[in-house]
Amino acid sequence: MNTFVSAIYAGKVTHKRLRPKRHFLRYRMFYMLLDIDEIDQIALTHRWFSHNRFNFFSFFDRDHGSKFDAAAQCSDLRSYAEGHLREAGMVPDNGTIKLMTMPRILGYVFNPLSVYFCHDSNGKLKALIYEVNNTFGQRHSYVFPLDGTDDAKPMHQECGKEFYVSPFMEMALNYDFTVTRPADCASVVINASDEDGLVIATVFTGKRREFSDWQLLKLFLGYPLLTLKVIAGIHWEALRIWIKGVSLKPRPQTPVQTRTITPHQTSAPFNSRSDNERPSISPS
């Protein structure tokens, strides 16, 4: 019997908008936490999960990584993620990379947020990559090298907003991310604030389930057409916010794929360029 590092985290997500109009939503959802080196083997040993082909659940490489970036010539997801790490001045050593994301369900997915947990060869968590997609076909990655603190504690990062997501949110915002390393539970908290304080808080919490055909079937029946509901829900909530009188914000002209690199001093074999550099945005 195969034992996989990959797992499923089922729970709920909440959005609480405080200004300029109050708005709240909560819905059930799940993420898969996939060791990117296990994906092929998982697909071979699970009836309801496939890699790069249709199934109840499927993972397609082109839904992540450098699908917009022909110049990068990344042959696989590992080279894509490690390219981000090198851009941040780090030296990957073939450590485990886990991707927390939603799969395609019956061939469709829209992932507002996916998170890469990048480890060194000793298993130490050394970097996080938050991969954000908007509904305008654009993608942005926020790359955070870590300073080697206790992996069991919640990890906190901050940066300025560099990517247009919601047409009802200003660009002049600051993000703070708080994430726990997935174990029995997983959580991701993203707060956006301006000079007057918190504007919106988003939280996902989920409990771990084993990756098995039985659990996949339970997900399929318990979260029917989840990925379609995500994109439908985004547009429905946007309509509700617009009806409340929140005005649309203009969308800046940006490349279809960008990244923000936030360097920090890290230990060997990962080496940061400088702990004094400001975050930068560059085509990916």
Structure description:
The protein is an alpha+beta fold and 284 residues long. It has one domain. Helix content is 16%, strand content 37%. The protein has 4 helices and 15 strands. The strands form 2 sheets. The chain has a 12-stranded mixed β-sheet with strand order 10-11-12-13-1-2-5-7-8-9-14-15, covered by helices on one side. Strands 3-4-6 form a 3-stranded mixed β-sheet. A hairpin with a 5-residue loop joins strand 7 (113-119) and strand 8 (125-133). The longest helix is centred in the last third of the chain and has 18 residues, at 226-243. It is globular and about 55 Å long. It starts with 6 loop residues before the first strand and ends with a strand.
